[in-house]
Design brief:
The complex is a heterodimer of chains A (319) and B (235). Chain A is mainly alpha-helical and 319 residues long. Chain A is built from 11 helices and 2 strands, in the order ααααββααααααα. Chain A is 70% helix and 4% strand. Chain A has a two-stranded antiparallel sheet with strand order 1-2. The radius of gyration of chain A is 20 Å and the shape is globular. In chain B, the strands form 2 sheets. Chain B has a 6-stranded mixed beta sheet with strand order 6-7-8-3-9-10, sandwiched between helices. Chain B has a 4-stranded antiparallel beta sheet with strand order 2-1-4-5, covered by helices on one side. The chains are: A mainly alpha (319), B alpha/beta (235). The complex binds adenosine-5'-triphosphate and magnesium ion.
């Protein structure tokens, strides 16, 4: 009896870890793309995630997507539309602000522009989070669909005794995250634009000699990175309550994931995020829920001590 | 075709080029030589737009290059094979060549150029799916030149292609450059430490010292010049 309960709990935590971990993976890919291409540490990434959540919430409500597309597709379409809006916002922010402290303009200058970048993204983070508070209010929100509180049962397995439950909202989020991450991977590795992004990341000066507009490549990377994290945010919003400061919680997860993934590698970032999800869910077996994020940090520090280049990092291959 | 007039370039307050004038006619092989720090790389970077001059003009086909953004210049047919090769280390050999063909001109001629590049440097064909960062120095130089050729350039600027290479490999690369010039009729600007070979191959040459052109002339004048013989050819 006891052994079966323990097995069931472990399997349940593993399943939940894979489901939420994949969504973390997607948000990490967004952050990793920006770092991998631009070498900019974006402190505002959590706040763009928050914007993705509210964009999904409002689009879902205003367009009555639940009514037209149902509880499965509705929130997903809202999240994708929200990502399009955030892509545009990213383009705007890059052309007005970030392009002044990144790219060819700062290549070779002292600190390669890292200090101004740091101040700028920190400032964006503060403004977006506090602006969010003014616009959206501090009341926790959520995208309620029938899926939020229902689950598929896998099982019973091993006779009649063992079943795993997969929350439907999380399962949808998992599937969409994996698909989007794979599409991004194909885009970066196969498409002409993807190769251009990698070339601009690898050697901005040589890329310019090839006729590649490095500024434009960075703009695409930044906007795309934000859009990906926003999709992840919109998906999280279907099963997790949020308010304008929610970015802080997730920025920790994203940084841990990206560092685990070997800073700058997109595939690594996804696995890093997945690992964080697993650690977080498995830790609930032995720790109180309040200590979830502490568990993430402990594992994070351990890995940094043992393997500073990240769990999945490879030195030769970036992005 | 390429006409540089009274070009002055400074980094901070320090002048790297002073009143430099260089004329390049279509189809010529131009050599630019001079000691370390003379400003040779700076001249190429100014043509490519990575560095902005203080004064002077750079005209290409009658167009004012300085008013054209750096990333647009490749599209006009200017290819820069930079000092230290600067291949895209995390991209494969083939992807590097594809990036070379990023310009409109390069895309249009991609298949033909690729065949020509792989024929010129067969080792690149063997290693087409290898990451460029794992190539040897000589192979990276071949890739860097191939990448320049992939853009179907009208002018190919080569900055010290023999730097850091074993003499036999450097000889090989030199022969390839002459072959490119002979067969494709591409205008070549070559910066070289191997002064004797560079001057031997050129139609016209410039000697830069401390940012100034101290000597210029056609092939015959230069190789007979007493100062050149003494300072650069060790005679
Ligand atoms: N980014 C830079 N910032 C400041 N000074 C520079 C920079 N690049 C070059 N210089 C200076 O400009 C001068 C010319 O440099 P440049 O690289 O053009 O010389 P070079 O002729 O190519 O030399 P070499 O044969 O060693 O490659 C040198 O004094 C160099 O120190
Ligand atoms: Mg040089």
């Amino acid at each position: 009896m006891n052994a079966i309960v323990i097995t069931e709990n472990i399997l349940q935590a593993l399943a939940a870890g894979i489901l939420v971990g994949s969504v973390y993976g997607l948000m990490c890919v967004g952050l990793g793309l920006i770092y991998g291409v631009m070498r900019v540490i974006n402190f505002a990434q959590g706040d763009f995630l928050m914007l993705g959540m509210y964009a999904t919430l409002y689009l879902f409500g205003w367009l009555s997507l639940g009514q037209y597309l149902g509880p499965y597709l509705g929130p997903v379409v809202a999240a994708l539309l929200g990502a399009v809006i955030l892509y545009g916002f990213g383009v705007l922010l890059h052309s007005t602000l970030l392009s002044r402290v990144t790219g060819i303009r700062v290549a070779g200058t002292e600190s390669e522009g890292h200090y101004p970048q740091l101040i700028l993204t920190l400032g964006m983070s503060l403004i977006i989070a506090n602006g969010g508070l003014i616009v959206f209010g501090s009341m926790p929100q959520g995208i309620r669909t029938p899926l939020s509180a229902s689950a598929w049962e896998i099982g019973p397995l091993i006779g009649q005794d063992l079943s795993i439950f997969l929350n439907k909202a999380r399962s949808v989020a998992f599937i969409v995250s994996v698909i989007v991450a794979i599409l991004l991977y194909l885009f970066i590795s196969r498409s002409r634009t993807g190769k251009t992004l990698r070339a601009a990341a690898d050697n901005p000066e040589a890329a310019t000699y090839m006729g590649i507009n490095v500024d434009r490549a960075y703009r695409v990377a930044f906007a795309l990175g934000i859009a990906l994290t926003a999709i992840a945010g919109g998906l999280v919003a279907t099963y997790y309550p949020f308010q304008p400061y929610v970015g802080l919680e997730f920025v920790i997860i994203m940084y841990a994931g990206v560092v685990l993934g070997g800073f700058g590698s997109i595939v690594g970032a996804f696995w890093g995020g997945l690992t964080i999800g697993l650690v977080q869910q498995l830790s609930t077996l032995i720790l109180p829920v309040q200590l979830q994020n502490a568990a993430i940090f402990v594992v994070f520090l351990l890995i940094i001590l043992i393997r500073p280049e990240g769990l999945f990092g490879r030195n030769a291959e970036r992005v | 075709m390429l006409s540089i007039k009274s070009l002055t370039v400074a980094y901070g307050g320090l002048k790297a080029l002073v009143d430099v004038t260089v004329e390049v006619a279509e189809g010529q092989f131009i050599a630019i030589v001079g000691p370390n720090g003379a400003g040779k790389t700076t001249l190429f970077k100014t043509i490519s737009g990575i560095v902005q001059p203080v004064s002077g003009s750079v005209m290409f086909d009658g167009k004012d290059l300085l008013s054209i953004p750096p990333s647009e210049r490749a599209h006009l047919g200017i290819a820069h094979v930079p000092e230290g090769r600067q291949v895209f280390r995390s991209l494969t050999v083939l992807e590097n060549l594809e990036m070379g063909a990023h310009s409109m001109r390069g895309r249009a001629d991609w298949a033909r150029n690729l065949a020509q590049i792989l024929e010129l440097f067969p080792v690149l064909a063997e290693r087409r799916d290898q990451l460029a960062g794992t190539l040897s120095g000589g192979e990276q130089q071949m890739l860097s030149i191939g990448r320049g050729l992939a853009s179907s350039p009208r002018v190919l600027m080569l900055d010290e292609p023999s730097m850091g290479l074993a003499p036999t490999i450097a000889d090989q690369i030199f022969e390839r450059i002459e072959e490119i010039h002979r067969e494709s009729k591409i205008t070549i600007l070559l910066v070289e430490q191997r002064v004797a070979e560079a001057l031997e191959a050129c139609d016209r040459g410039y000697v830069l010292e401390s940012g100034r052109v101290v000597l210029e002339g056609v092939h015959d004048t230069l190789i007979r010049d007493e100062r050149v013989k003494r300072a650069y050819l060790g005679m």
